[in-house]
Structures are given as structure tokens and as C-alpha cells.
Amino acid sequence: MLFRNRFLLLLALAALLAFVSLSLQFFHLIPLSAASKNGVSSKSRKRIMPAPVTEPPVMDPVYEALLYCNTPSVAERSMEGHAPHHFRLVSVHVLIRHGDRYPLYAIPRTKRPEIDCTLVANRKPYHPKLEAFVSHMARGSGASFESPLHSLPLYPSHPLCEMGELTQTGVVQHLQNGQLLRDIYLKKHKLLPSEWSEDHLYLETTGKSRTLQSGLALLYGFLPDFDWTKVFFRHQPSALFCSGSCYCPVRNQYLEKEQRRQYLLRLKNSQLERTYGEMAKVVDVPTKQLRAANPIDSLLCHFCHNVSFPCTRSGCIDMEHFKVLRTHQLEDERERREKKLYLGYALLGAHPILNQTISRMQRAAEGREEEIFALYSAHDVTLSPVLSALGLTGARFPRFAARLIFELWQDREKPSEHFVRILYNGMDVTFHTSFCQDHHKRPHKPMCPLENLVHFVRRDMFAALGSGSTNYYDACHKEEF
Ligand SMILES: *[C@@H]1O[C@H](CO)[C@@H](O)[C@H](O)[C@H]1NC(C)=O
Ligand SMILES: *[C@@H]1O[C@H](CO)[C@@H](O)[C@H](O)[C@H]1NC(C)=O
Q1: For the segment 332-381, what is each residue's pLDDT rounded down to a tens digit?
Q2: How many angstroms is it from 305 CA to the middle of ligand 1?
Q3: What is the number of other CB atoms lying within 10 angstroms of the CB of residue 236?
Q4: 135-179 per-position pLDDT tens digit
Q5: Which residues are tagged catalytic?
Q6: Are residues 97 and 153 located together in one domain of the fold?
Q7: Quick check: is 288 in a domain?
Q8: What are the φ and ψ backbone dihedral angles of 412, each rounded to 5 degrees?
Q9: CATH code (residue 183)
Q10: Which distant-in-sequence residues (6+ apart) come within 8 Å of 466 by Cβ?
Q11: Are 175 and 51 within one domain?
């Protein structure tokens, strides 16, 4: 009897714990990823991304590739816009990677995958706003874009995709992102007045058609049938979004060392070398030439679009090859985090865009109603350094249509106090950042004070480099190596 009572008590305790853990997750007092993990190591607990129930316990290259494809499916969960009632949303800053695209390189001597980049309703994935998007873009030819953006097509249109072209999947991904942000930021939090003007937005994109089109798709999902005269996209010549302060010799030195690390890791992987050799034999070119064509980029496109891998008369490239290449990529990312050379590169590379973002936040915090929705349409090589610089070591490599969002909030009860939240692909990662890691232990502050981010960007990120610099210019020119 006693035994049975104790058992019931344990059961009740377990139920209570489960409930508490669930509520903590719900109110995101503790990050979801940390709570849902089995706690094998601190590394895996810090893993940020989706953590769906099916996530395998060990690194699975095929599962990781599926996440990377980010094929649109039913509603995903997202934590954007979650805040206590007495907080007011002041501004939102969105950094995206372009959506799904056709490969940048072809595998030598093989037929390129037959993927249709026209936008049509009877093909999956589909979005209810797809046709309206196309007709709206068709009316946008007189729109004002900063040179040379006006020479780019506003939506993809080739029956056989061109290299690097955005696909229908890519458009749908960003229509979805835009609609999700619309539901949260416009409908729920009324970020923009209904009579918004050009000054409320800040839009910037690199000069590729896929980034401009991704930005437009997101904007269309966010502001359907927007007035073309109120939309102005600026052109960013650098993938690091550093225009005006791109010259940074120390950053380049870090990058060279990082590339050397990458090269040495590759040499150590005999299975990888053997696999490149086998694949080169299939397509009958020297191994070096095959490697230079970056075959994993093409193979990921085959994989994401469910198109079988290329074959020749000598055989086929197959799933085993794909797995070896992907596994190596994942190992490379892991070593990259441990060796910290990339962190040096990332801190300097991400400074200009973070600096730009906090300046915009500070102006909004002062009550200026300008640029309260900022969109930077960018690349994996833009997001990746920003994630590392923020200290988000558990973040996965930016998938297609990845989104990193900075929200600025004001405490209505203490209007001089402003806070930030940071979200990566819908997950609240605020308390994973290096400048707000321990903050959630203080339950009366449910977000990260804006000053933490400001001090980090203006001062502490240089200290993290360890060269004794206190500003960007010094840190970029310090003779350290
Ligand atoms: C992928 O293609 C194969 C045939 O080529 C088909 O049987 C399968 O259902 C497809 N999978 C998906 C997810 O579309
Ligand atoms: C950072 O932002 C401030 C304020 O906008 C600006 O004066 C400064 O030049 C920026 N620094 C860099 C390195 O971009």
C-alpha cells in the first residue's frame, strides 16, 4: 500500500514536472531547444533548430539535408512577437537568406537537373498568393530600385532554370515568411500604421536576382498589393553588407586561416577523397575538376527537388556519395565552431550590419517613426557570420529562406526601457547569444535589454577578438598575426 502510494506520488510529481517544463517552454523562460533535449552533452543541448519530435539522436546527413531544403509544408511553429502584454513592439529587423535556388555550378559532363523556374499554380509547392504575386510583379517594371537592381527580373521565369535562379519553391518559402510576419507584426502588433509610407521601411538587397526576388516575395506576403511608389530597394554590393567599411585586413587574415583549416580537414578525410575519386570516375573528369565544381551544391538541388542523381554510361552518383559529402560538411561546421578562427572572421564581418541595425533600433527607441521595418535580403555567407558573432554556436547553417529577426520592444510601464528579442527560423534564441546568456535567470526581465546588444556591438565584440582593440577600425588593422 505504502509502495503503491509512493508510486502514485512519483507519478504525480512526474506529471507536475512535465507540466512545469511545458509551461516554461511556452512562456519561453527557458529556450525550447534546451528543454527538449535529452542532455547528452552541453553542445547538443545548445542546439537551436527545429527540434521536431523526430530529430534523430545522432547527426544524420539526410535528415540535416531535409532541414536545409526547407520545403514548404503545413504551418510551422514560430515564436516571433511573443511578449508580455505591457510591451509595445517598436521595430523589426529581418535578415533573410534567399529561397531555394538552382545550383550555382554544374557537375561536369552530366545533364543539369530539369527544374522549371516558371511560377505556376498547378505545381507544388504552392501558395495562395502565388498568382497575385506574379501579376503584381508584372506591374512593377516602373518601380524605383537603386542601380543596378532595376536591370534584374522581378520574378523567376525560365522553363529551364538558369544557374542560381530562384525557383517556385524559393518564392513560396518567402511568401510564407512574409505572411507569417504579417499575421504577427501587422495584424497582431500593428507595427505599421495602415497609411504606412516609404519612410517606415528600409529595404536592402545584394545585386542577385534571387535575393531581390526573395525580398520582393517576402514583402508581398507581408504587405500584399503594396503600392510600388512606396517601395525602394537599396543595393548592397557586398555579401557582408559592409558597404563603406568593407576594408578590413585582419578579417581577411582570419578568413585565410579558416580556409587553411578547412583544407587540412578535407585532406584528413580519406573517405571523402575516395568518394570524390569515385564520382570523378563516373563523370570522367579529373578529381580536381570535379571538386572545383562543388558537386554537393548540385546534389542538394537534386535532393531537395526529388530529382534522381546524375548518371553516365560509367555509372551513377548515388545516395552514399551524397551522404559522405554532407557528413563532411557537417563535420567541417563542427570543427569550425571549435577552432574559433571563423569566430574572428565573423566578429569583424558582422560588425557593420549589426552596427547599422542597432543604430536603426536606437533611432526607433528615441521615437523616430522611420525604418521601423527593415529587411536585408542576403546569402548564407551573410547570415552565417552574424549567427557566429552573436554567439549562436548551436545554430544550424542557414537553410534556404532562413530568417534571423531582431525585435525591439518598449516596456509601457517604464517607457524609457527598451528590450530586444532575437529569433532564428522562428525559435527564440535571445538567451543563447553571448551578450544575454545569463539574463533569463532574472525572471522579472523577460527579454534582453537593448543596452546589452548595443554594448556588445560597439565595444565587447572587439574584446572578444582578444587583440585589445576597442573599435572596428583598430580591430581591422591590428597587426596580430
Ligand atoms: C520522389 O520521386 C519518386 C519517383 O521518382 C516518387 O516515388 C516519390 O513519391 C517522390 N517523393 C516525393 C516526396 O515527392
Ligand atoms: C556605426 O554606426 C555609427 C552610427 O550610425 C556610425 O557613425 C559608425 O561609422 C558606424 N561604424 C561602422 C564601423 O560602421
Answers
A1: 999 999 999 999 999 999 999 999 999 999 999 999 999 999 999 999 99
A2: 9
A3: 22
A4: 999 999 778 899 999 999 999 999 999 999 999 999 999 999 999
A5: 98, 380
A6: yes
A7: no
A8: -65, -25
A9: 3.40.50.1240
A10: none
A11: no
Give the pLDDT band of residue 28 (cuts 50, 70, 90): very low
Tens digits of per-residue pLDDT, 295-323? Answer: 999 999 999 999 999 999 999 999 999 99
List residues near ligand 2 (CB under 6 A): 245, 352, 355, 359, 472
| Predicted model pTM | 0.88
Other Cβ atoms less than 10 A from the Cβ of 132: the count is 14
Number of domains in the chain: 2
The CA 319 to ligand 1 mean position distance, Å, reads: 15
Residue 313 inside a domain? The answer is no
Within 10 A of 278 (CB to CB), how many other CB atoms are there? 16
241, 242, 247, 355: residue to mutate for ligand 2 pocket, most atoms within 8 A of CB: 355
The answer to whether residue 277 sits within a structural domain is: no
Distance of CA 191 to the CA centre of its chain: 22
- The mean pLDDT of the chain is 89
CA–CA separation, 442 vs 29, rounded Å? Answer: 10
**Residue 322, C-alpha cell as written in the block:** 551524397
Q: How far is CA 124 from the centre of its chain?
A: 23
Q: Kindly state whether residues 467 and 356 are assigned to the same domain.
A: yes
203 and 244 belong to one structural domain: yes
Q: Please check whether residues 85 and 217 belong to one and the same domain.
A: yes
Other CB atoms within a 10 A radius of the CB of residue 36 amount to: 15
CA–CA distance, 451 with 19 (Å, rounded to integer): 34
> Which of 55, 79, 100 is the last residue before a domain boundary?
55
Q: Whole-angstrom Cα distance, residue 14 to residue 169?
A: 43
- Give the three-state DSSP class for 235: strand
Tell me which amino acid residue 427 is: M
Pair 106, 158 in one domain: yes
The parent domain of residue 124 ranges over: 69-248+341-477
Name the residue among 474, 409, 422, 417 with its Cα closest to residue 87. 409
- Ligand 2 centroid–CA 245 distance in Å is 9
Answer whether residue 265 is part of any domain: no
Q: Indicate the Cα dihedral angle 136, 142, 148, 149, nearest 10°.
A: -10
Mutate to test the pocket of ligand 2, among 353, 359, 461, 462 (most ligand atoms within 8 A of CB): 359
Cβ contact 334:311 at 8 Å? no
**Cα dist. 45→31, 34, 48, 392, 444 in Å?**
10, 5, 8, 12, 25
- Which is nearest to 94 in space by CA: 31, 177, 159? 177
Instruction: Indicate whether 210 and 168 sit together in one domain.
Output: yes
C-alpha pair distances (Å), 397 with each of 47, 265, 388: 12, 18, 10
Amino acid at position 231, single letter: V
> How many residues in the chain?
481
Kindly state whether residues 180 and 77 are assigned to the same domain.
yes
